Every structure is written in C-alpha cells, then in structure tokens.
Amino acid sequence: MSRVTFVVGLPGSGKSKLGRRLAEERNLKFIDDPNVNDMPAIERGLQNGESFVIADPHLCRKVEQEYALQWAAKFGAEVEWVFFENDPEQARANVTARNDGRAVDDTIVLQSREYHIREGSVVLPVWRPKK
After folding, report:
1. In a domain, 130, yes or no
2. Which domain holds residue 24?
3. By CB neighbour count within 10 A (0-12 exposed, 13-18 middle, 19+ buried), where does 54 fall?
4. Fewer CB within 10 Å: C terminus or N terminus of the chain?
C-alpha cells in the first residue's frame, strides 16, 4: 500500500531538512513544495505502490489539508502528518539566517494566522541552528 507523509510547517521551519531525512531513512521519494507539474509523476507512483514524503507549507491551512486527504484517498494511500509548531518568530529568524533572497515574511504572517495542526499528528519544534 502506498503511503504519503506530509511534512507541514511555515517557511523556514525545517520541512525540507526533515523531509529529506525521513525519505532517506524510510527509502521513500521526497517531494519539496510540489507544484502542478509534479503531480502526474507522484500520482503514477502512488498507483504503482510507491510512497512519498511531501514537504508543503500550503498544508498549514485546514482546507488544504482536507483537499490533500481527498487526493490521497483517490489512490488508497495511507496518510501520516508531521507538523512543525506554529512559531513564526523562529521561522522568520531561520529564513533571515539562510540569506537566500527569498521574501517570505508576508507568507509566514498569513500562514501562521490560519495554521491548523491536525489532531493525532506528530508535532515538532521549529528547527533551530546549532550554536
């Protein structure tokens, strides 16, 4: 049976880092912030019994989570949710520290207002750089 592990958090929370690690540990495919162009390959994989770790900041919103559940159900995939805490200050600090030119401050503010952690999910603290 296919499985999708959704890793959810604000920009800068550590989704990509955790997603890569989980995919490597579990021998799964990793998709970082998927877009419409990624979907056909993911859907073919699910139809063929493959499993994925998908890191997606848009899944902070309850409506997007419901859509993701319906989408996964079409392929009979089990779903696991891993959330980072809703910590916009640390997320913003992480984005600032990585200094890659991405302007996501408005996104962090908007997503933190609608942040919904599903009951029964794994919840992790936002990633913090080692001192």
Report:
1. no
2. 3-124
3. buried
4. C
